[in-house]
Amino acid sequence: MSRTSDILITALAPAIWGSTYFVTTEFLPAGYPITLAVLRALPAGLLLLAVTRCLPPRDWLGRVFLLGALNFAVFWTLLFVAAYHLPGGVAATVTSVQALIVIGMARGWLGTPVRSAAVIAAITGITGVGLLLLGPGAALDPVGVTAALGAAAAMAAGTVLSRKWQPPVAALSFAAWQLTAGGLILLPLSLIVEPALPPLTLTNIGGLLWLGLIGAAVTYWIWFRGVARIEPGAVSMLGMMSPVTAVVLGWTWLGQALSPLQILGAIVVLASVWVSQAANRPGGMAMPRLFMRRRPSI
């Protein structure tokens, strides 16, 4: 399969993750973020384990639980802390620095060269997310900003290490291992920190099925498949598709206004994601012919 096809398939994962806010606020009971994260990760992981019938070898358990912690337990917990202390737009903008963190981590852990075009694309994408989500009343809370930066760093580390540690199994099994490990780590925390869930309605169950089956099992299989095939910097930039989807859903389903500045932000994000794919490919972005020095004819 071509690299372009891999990029388009992988981009589906963050695009679907953009529905998480909409589904959580419209379909799920409020005030149970860690419990809902457990119900999203653990059943999805166990289902994939039952499908693949592939358990991690003993010498892989440490890596699997570390990746499960980074990609799910730590990331989701800090993300919820950030959401409680910051407006949603601020939290999403701060966590979008993940793309820059991945570039630095990939350099240190994988030896991936740092390309100026990739850095510029990441900074431009962060600016686009800010235009898309930040409002005039955006406020910065130190606890929320720290949590958002921690969430970005955790997901960045999980992405790079998932590329560095590639087990000899299919991406579906790798996703199953990490989802199960992340859910098991979150389970005792949810029992300690949060009260029991109220009786779930059919609407609640539908929301959980979407977040668990589609928003976790399917998307993380797609995501880890992409991590194994595409450069870490290129993969991390695809995560910026998530806020674009969230804003489009708010506009189409919730009747939220979409300002010209937000439309500009969405265009900037999409353009930066496109540029980053060329900048992060092996060999880097080709120099435009306009700036290439013509060889003298002999």
UniProtKB/TrEMBL annotation:
Keyword Cell membrane in record: no
Superkingdom of origin: Bacteria
Membrane spanning stretches: 7-24, 30-52, 64-84, 90-110, 117-137, 143-162, 169-193, 205-223, 235-254, 260-279
Topological category with respect to the lipid bilayer: Multi-pass membrane protein
Cellular component, GO annotation: membrane
Keywords annotated in UniProt: Membrane, Transmembrane, Transmembrane helix
One protein family per Pfam: EamA
Presence of keyword ATP-binding: no
Span of domain EamA: 7-133, 144-275
Location of the protein in the cell: Membrane
PANTHER family, per database record: EAMA DOMAIN-CONTAINING PROTEIN, INNER MEMBRANE TRANSPORTER
Family membership: Belongs to the EamA transporter family.
Protein name: EamA family transporter
